[in-house]
Amino acid sequence: MTVEADDIWDRALNVGEVSELTYPGDIAMARVLLAHGSVMNGGVLNYVEEYDATEVADAEAAYRWLGAGGVGDLIDRVRAKVATGLGLKQLETLERTADDAYGEVIGDDEALLDLLRVRLADFPDAFAPLD
After folding, report:
1. Dihedral through CA 98, CA 99, CA 100, CA 106, nearest 10?
2. Contacting residues for 85 by C-beta, under 8 A, at least 6 apart
3. DSSP string, 28-53
4. Would you state the torsion angle of the CA atoms of residues 90, 72, 108, 18, taken in this order, to the nearest 10 degrees?
5. Is this structure's pTM higher than 0.85?
6. pLDDT tens sequence across 49-89
């Protein structure tokens, strides 16, 4: 039975812990969906501030693996700027520009699903088969 992008999406959404996954594509998708959900609910800045540095770095790499390297780079830049200790006005500007930039690349869930479809076609063995 062939695994479909929708199946991978559902599996990534419903996994309890990323550590439960063994295939690199599934791991990347789970990390991206966790980050994406947080960004869509609170913004890029909120995501960077809410999650620990390892989780954020893992998400950056996952976005890159999925083919959204610009988003991985964006999150990295936001994380670096936050670490410099910005003032409130600078944080507000950063928040607005980061959210706009994220929206240009990943406007909605369908954009992520399209990236997943391409990765699945290129690297089918990176994803676990259906049980």
Report:
1. 110
2. none
3. HHHHHHHHHHHHHHH-HHHHHHHS-H
4. -120
5. yes
6. 999 999 999 999 999 999 999 999 999 999 999 999 889 99
Q: Which two tokens stand for residue 44?
A: 């890029």
In this prediction, residue 52 carries a pLDDT of: 93
Amino acid at 47: Y
Tell me what percent of the residues of the chain surpass a pLDDT of 70: 98
Helix axes 53-66, 109-122, angle to 10 degrees: 70
SS3 1: coil
* Per-residue pLDDT at 1: 55
Residue 85: C-alpha distances to residues 39, 49, 57, 116 (Å):
21, 12, 19, 35
What is the sign of the dihedral through the CA atoms of 42, 48, 49 and 51?
positive
